[in-house]
Amino acid sequence: MGYQIIRALLYFFFGLYGLHVEGRENIPDKGAVIAAANHKSYFDPPLVGMALEKRRISFMAKSELFRNPLFGRLIRYLGAFPVKRNSADMTAIRRSLAELKKGQVLCIFPEGGFVHGKALGRFHPGMAFLAILTGTPILPVAIIGAEPLPVKKGPLAVVIGKPIPVRKARPDDRNTAALDELVKQRIQAMIEAYEKKKGQGSF
User: Fold this and answer.
1) What is the pLDDT of residues 120-179, one digit of tens each?
2) What are the UniProt keywords, alphabetically (predicted)?
3) Cα–Cα distances in Å, from 44 out to 51, 81, 102, 117?
4) How many CA atoms within 13 Å lie on the side-chain side of 95?
């Protein structure tokens, strides 16, 4: 019940910014999937949660966010678990593998932190490592317009691409780098395509 109330409040909040979601038909109905999204603001995790409304998601969040007991408890309830950045956090890796083994959606922001501007930042290898190790498909997610929230109104959009199949293998520098680049290019192309449609007044 509490989760549904929070979801309703988020729908109302993002509705003030004219949230537009595309590509929900690309979300697998069941089975493990890694949702990989670009990262613009603290609003990105709930935005992904709204966009993937037919699936409940788990997501990594930097460990610093859990220092406040009240806020930490809230985001844990919403599916977050801590990860220590700039280190091989084995606890977070084991939790990620457990979520995928259960057939859940795991959301990862491969840039690792906020990256402002139109270009995407460097992708860290964790997303690709987990996907290749487990053979889990990656769902590319493009977040557009979240950077100025809550100061400036929209347009605010989340675009969900088609899942990228991943063959299970032993992760190494070559295959993780190649997968990172493929996902990065896919998200960048989705952002550019949306911006082009928006400029042409196709909505």
Assistant:
1) 989 988 899 999 999 999 999 999 988 765 555 557 899 999 999 999 999 999 999 999
2) Acyltransferase, Transferase
3) 10, 15, 24, 15
4) 19
Helix and strand totals (H; E) in the chain? 6, 7
Give pTM, 2 decimals.
0.89
| Domain chopping of the chain, boundaries | 2-199
Residue for token digits 């995928």?
100
| H or E stretch covering 33 | strand 33-37
Under CATH, to which class is 2-199 assigned?
A: alpha beta
Please state whether 157 falls in left (phi above 0), alpha (psi between -120 and 50) or beta: beta
- What does the buried/exposed string (b/e) look like for 1-25 if buried means 16 or more CB atoms within 10 Å of the residue's CB? eeeeeebeebeeebeebebbbbbee
Q: Which two tokens stand for residue 11?
A: 């729908």
